[in-house]
Amino acid sequence: MQNLLDLDPAQLTAWFAARGEKPFRATQVLRWIHRFGESDFDAMTDIAKSLREKLRATAVVVPPAIVSDRRSDDGTRKFLFDVGNGNAVETVFIPEDDRGTLCISTQAGCALDCSFCSTGKQGFSRNLTVAEIIGQLWQVNKALGRDPKGERIISNVVLMGMGEPLANFENSVAALNLMLDDNAHGLSRRRVTVSTSGLVPAMDRLREACPVALAVSLHAPTDELRDRLVPINRKYPLAELMAAC
After folding, report:
1. Is pTM beyond 0.85 here?
2. Model confidence over 97-108: pLDDT tens digits?
C-alpha cells in the first residue's frame, strides 16, 4: 500500500499516471489530502467512485501519530510524534500577533553532535520519511482546528526541529514542495525556512532545487570556537560557509 503523504506533487502525478489516471485526478487528491486534511477516500466526493475504490485498494494516507500535545500559557504547543521503533520527534507551534510558526523535525536524532544541542546527545537513529515530515504539518493543522476556507493558523514553517534538514535532503525537499504547492499547503517561499548548521554542498543544491528562505546556525565568529561548538565546521569552515550564504 502506498502512503500518499510520501509523494510530492510531481511524484503523485507520476503515481496516478502509472495507473492510467489523468494528471487532474492527482491534483484533486492532492487538494483533498493537504488542503482539506482528508484521509478517507470515500469523503473525496468529486472523485469518481471507481477511482475511490481503486485508491482504497492500493493507497493510504497515514501521518505519524501524536503521542502528546502540551500547551503553554502563552499559546505555544509542543507536539510529540511517534515515528516507530521507540523513536519520537518534536514539533512546536509558536503563535505570535502577526504569524503562527511551526517548527518541524526532519530526523530522529542527529549525527552532527553540536555541543549545546540535546538532540545530538541522543545520537542518530534515521532520516524521517516525507510522510513523517509533512505529516507533522498535516496533523498540527487538524489539531489547531484549521478551517481550509478561513485564515491560516500556521502561516510560517521552519525546518528547525530535531535533526539537520540538509542531511535528509531528498525527503526534506519533497516535503517543502508540498508546503509550497498551491494545491497542497500553498505557503509562500518567504514564509518557509530551512535551518542548517552549514552543510555547504547541500546549501548549494537547495538553492537550485527549492529556493526557500535559509537560516544558518552560526554560533561563533571564529573557526577555533565554532570547531568546538559545531563540529561540522571542521569540514566546512566559516569562509566556505559564508561564501555559500
Report:
1. yes
2. 999 999 999 999
